[in-house]
Amino acid sequence: MNQYTGGVKFAGPGDSLTAAVSSPRGNCLGFWNMENRKMLAQHYIHDVSGIAYDAQDRNFFVTTGAGAIHRFNTRGHEVSRYRTIAPNHLLATN
User: Fold this and answer.
1) Most buried of the four, 16, 37, 73, 87, by CB within 10 Å?
2) Residues 6+ apart with CB under 8 A from 80
């Protein structure tokens, strides 16, 4: 992670206690189960930073500086990837 965190987001109430952590300097995204303190998954994603969580779909949305949007489930598995012009930081609203 090169001693830098770009974003941290936890799964919402009622979901598994998963944390997603991005590091644009390290070009990596990690998912942790906070109950047992174990890493679930790690992904190499260039310039990854923004993270939002959709409690209704139980998915994390992650953005990069190049405008990609990645969607992951609470186990850290990638569900889909989009190419768009998106901001590198996200804000989730209900």
Assistant:
1) 73
2) 70, 71
